[in-house]
Amino acid sequence: MTLTAATRRATVTGMAIEQRDVAEVSEAAEFVQRFAAAWSKCDPAALAELLDEDVVLIQPMMPSTRGRTASRAAFARLFALIPDLRATVHRWGAGDDVLYIEFTLAGTFGGRELSWPAVDRFILRDGLALSRVSYFDPLPLAFKMLTRPRGWGRVVRSGFRPSFGGPRSDAA
Questions:
Q1: CA–CA separation, 118 vs 95, rounded Å?
Q2: Rounded percentage of the chain residues whose pLDDT exceeds 70
């Protein structure tokens, strides 16, 4: 049996790896590669390909979404707001049916670079995201966006509607 780099890392750190764990780590490693590739394309369709039909996405500043179609539309609004938005993956970890990816999002808003760190927690099913909760501090990002009036027109045109009320249970 050939071990992937992720599996070798897990072995080196002293984790006892069962056959099931090897499969989960391999699935997670593949998902992380696809995640990084999808974000490099600045394309809502590429990101939607990572998602299960019944996916639930929860994130700061935006309403929760349910379903691949609604999620793709939310990504389209995000890219209309920041067309060159990309993610740089720094590290990831998987275990107990959960995948965490730490990354930085960066793009141009209001004529200047905008970036913020985030961590996404995924539940995967058959290699696709069944749920994703994104964790980042929205206040510095909101402040940067508010202090760049050149970008305000893009907010209106994009259809982006910030939501600061926290996760909603009525995600549609």
A1: 19
A2: 79
The band of 62, judged by pLDDT with boundaries at 50, 70 and 90, is: confident
Percent composition of the chain: helix, strand, coil (DSSP 3-state, to 5): 40, 35, 25
Output the pLDDT for position 8: 44
pLDDT digits (tens, 9 = 90+) for 80-122: 999 999 999 999 999 878 999 999 999 999 999 999 999 999 9
Helices (H) and strands (E) in the chain, counts: 6, 6
Cβ burial of 82 (10 Å; 0-12, 13-18, 19+) is: buried
Rounded Cα–Cα distance for residues 11 and 136 (Å): 30
The CA distances from residue 39 to 14, 44, 101, 144, in Å, are 32, 9, 13, 22
Answer whether CATH 3.10.450.50 is correct for domain 5-158: yes
